[in-house]
User: Fold this.
Amino acid sequence: MKERFMRSVAAVATLALMTAAAPLLAAADGPNDADLMADASSTGDVLTYGMGPQAQRFSPLAKINAGNIKSMVPAFAASLGGEKQRGQEAQPLVYDGTIYVTGSYSRLFAFDAHTGEQKWRYEARLPDGIMPCCDVVNRGAAIYGDKIIFATLDARLVALNRHTGKVIWNKQIADYQAGYSATAAPLIVKGMVITGNSGGEFGIVGAVEARDVNTGELIWHRPVVEGNMGTLRGKDNGITGKLNATWEGDLYKTGGGATWLGGTYDPETNLLYFGTGNPAPWNSHLRKGDNLYTASTLAIDPETGVIKWHYQTTPHDGWDFDGVNEFIPFDATINGKPMKLGAKADRNGYFFVLDRTNGKFVSASRFVMQTTWANGYSKDGKPNVIPAGRPGLPNGTDKGGSVFSSPSFLGGKNWMPMAYSKDTGLFYIPSNDWGMDIWNEPISYKKGAAYLGAGFTIKPIAEDHIGVLRAMDPKTGKIVWEYKNKAPLWGGVLTTAGNLVFTGTPEGYLKAFDAKTGTELWKFQTGSGVVGSPVTWEQDGEQYVAVMSGWGGAVPLWGGEVAKSFKDINQGGSLWVFKLPKN
Amino acid sequence: MQDRRSFLSASIAMAALGLCPALAEAAPLAKVKAMGVLRVAIYNNNRPWSWQSDGKVIGIDADIGTALAKAMGVRVDLAELIADESADDDLRNGVWRGGLLGFQPADVMLHVPFDRAFAARNDQVAIVAPYYRESFQFACIKGEIDCNGPPAQFRGHRLAAEIDSVPDFYLMGTAGGVLAKDVTHYSTGAEAVTAITDGRADGVLASRAQIEAVLFERKPTNVARRTMPLPAFVSPGWDIGMAVKESSRTLGDAAESVLAAMVASGELKAIFARYGVTYTAALAA
Assistant:
C-alpha cells in the first residue's frame, strides 16, 4: 500500500513538472523508478522486459480479445536491414511514441510507433574474435530517464540517449576474451542496472551485479557459487554460502553457474530473483556435492547484493540443466491459505512453485512428456534422481554405453519466457518435448589438445511435435490445455485480459489462443521464424501488438533429426506491429 | 552458459554442416601468391605455441606460420583464434566458414590434431603436414614428491593442472578421487607449470611442450620429470598438423613440401629449440 501511495505521489509530481516546464525539460525526462515498477498496470507503454518487474507478461488491455482477434491485421512492419540477420529474440519496449528493439549482432533500433519509420539505430562495433555459444542474439533493452540501455555480445553495457541514439556511457562488464558475453535484457531497480553474466563453461563464475544507472559504475557484485567473495561499493561483503560445503578443492573458483538470462524483481518483498546456470566442468563425476548455488533460483537484496534465500532445482547437475529460467512472482491461495508465491519452469522439465518470501518449496510438477533423470520431487523439494539416467564417467578409452536423457540439454523450456494471467490464474509455458543420446567421445580435442568429451544427438520423442505451449495450473500442477507445434518453440509468451495468449513459432507465425481453452483463434505469417517475445500496449485509443520476426537462436546450431522440422525456414529481421482495423 | 556447451561439443561442427554458407573463400595456392599474403590461424594464449609478448605474437606455431609464408614468397598474416569448445568448432571458425562476427577464414590453420577419426568427421577441411608428436607429462619438485611413485602417494601435496583438460580429469578422478582436494586449477597448462617453478605447487600434469618451455625459461634446478607411464592414463599422445579448406588442397600440398624442407634443413628443429622444446616428429610423419 505504501509503495502504491508513493508511486502516485511521484506521478503527480512529474505531471506538475511537465506542465510547468518547457517541452525541453519534458523531453529530457523519461521513465523513473516508480514508472518502471508500475509497468504491469500502465497500458500506454511497455517499459520493462517482462511487462513489469515481476515479468508476468500480462496486460490488462482487452480491446483486442478472443471475440474480435480474428480481424487483427498488420499496422506496419519495419526491417532491421543490412546483411545481419540470424535470431531476433528481443522483446520491444514502447515509450513516448517510439518502439525500441534490440537486434542480432548487438544492434538497437528506435522506430516511430505510429508509422514504423526508423528514428535512429545504434550498431555496436564488435571485435571479430568473439565466439558466442548460441547465436548472436539479444533479448531486449531497459529504459530509464533519457537513457536506453542494453548489453552487447562483447560483454559491455551501453547507455544511449533515447532521443538520439548517442552513447551516454559504455562499460565493460566482463572480458569477452575470457569467454564472457551478454545477451539478456538489463533490469532496472532503484536507480541501479542489475545484470547477470554469461560466458563459456570454464574458468568463469556466475554473478549478479548492480551498477549506477547514470554512470554505469559498479555498486555491488555477488558471485553465485559458494566460496567466492562478494563486494559492495568496492569493499568485501562476505562470501557466498560456505567455503567448500558443496564443492571440493578449488573447483568453486571456476564453478560456472552463469546468470545469463537476467532476473526479475518483486516490489512487495523487495527481492531480486535470479536463476543460475549449470556447474562446471560438465563432467559431474569430477565435482562431488550439490555444487551450490548452480542450477538454482536465488533471492537477492537489491540494496546490498546479499543472498536472502536459494532453492536448487537440479542438485549436482550432470545433464546441463541450467537453472536460469525466470522466476515469476504471483499470489494464490494454496490449501486455503493466501500465499506470496513465485514460479519457474526449469530446463529439467519441472515447474516449480516456491514461497517467494523465504524460498520454501511448495510443489514441482512435470510439464514435459518425459523426464529420464528424475521421477518427481519429494515433499522437501529434493528430486527423486534416477541414477541410471546420469551420463557416465568418461574413461577415455571407449565410447561406453549411450545414455538416453530427456529433456535434452536444450531443456523442457529454454530461455523463452512464460506468462502468467491474473485472470485465468494459469501459467503459459513455451516448452519442448525432446531427448538426447549422450555418450563418451574418446577422440575429442580442445585447443589442439586431447580431451575427454561427450557426443550427443538430440532427437524428438513424439511423432507429431517437438514444441508445446502448455497452460499450467500452479495450484494443482495440472496441464489445463496444450497446443502442439511441429518445430521447437523458441519464442516468449504474452497473455492479456482479452482472454488471449500470444506466442510465435519457428514456422513464421505469430499465433493467438483462447487463454481458457487453448483454441487457436488467429495467426499471421511474418516471413521468418518468430523467436522473440510479443508485447501489447494502447496508443491513440487503440490496442497494438508487436513482435520480432527472425529465425535463429540456439536451435538451428544443433542438427540431427530435430533439424528436419526447421531446415527450410529462412532468416529474417523485422518488427511486426498489429491492431484491429478502424470501424 | 546460456545455451553453449562443451558438454555437447563433439558433433557440433557436423551438425552445422550445410546450414552455414562459407563467408569467404580461403585461397588456394595460386590465389595466395597473387594476393601476396598467407593468412595463418593460430590459437591465442597458447604458450609455447602462440601467445602475445609485448604486443607481438610469438611462439612455435607463430614461427612455423611465418616460415611457411616466407617459403611461399608471401607476407604472413597471423590470425589469433579464440578457442571454442572443441577443435571441431575451431576448424569451422578458423578455416571453412569463419566466425559469426566477421573472423575471416584463414588459408591455413596450425595446431590441428592429426587423427583419422577426427579428420573423418571434419570433412570440410583437409588436415595435412603433421609436424609434432605431443603427449602429457608429470613433473614434480624433487624431495616433495616421488615423481615415479603411484599417484595416490601425491596425496596432500599441491598439484597443478589446466582447468578442464585431460590432466585435470586425471588428477581429479585417479585412485577414486583421493587427489581431488589437492588440485589447483589454472587457465592454461603453461600457467600450471609456472606454479611449480614459482613454489606454488609440488607437481604438475601438463603437455610435454608446456613443461619443457617453462623449464627452459625459468631454469629451476629442483624439478624432475616422471619417466614411468601414469597408471590408467587415457591419452597415449597425439599428432599435430595443419588444416586447409577441403577445396584448397594445392595449398595443403605446398605446406607439406615446405614442412618437409624445414625438417630436412633442421629449420623446424631450430624453431622448437628456440622455445626450449625438443622437436619430436609426428608418428604419422
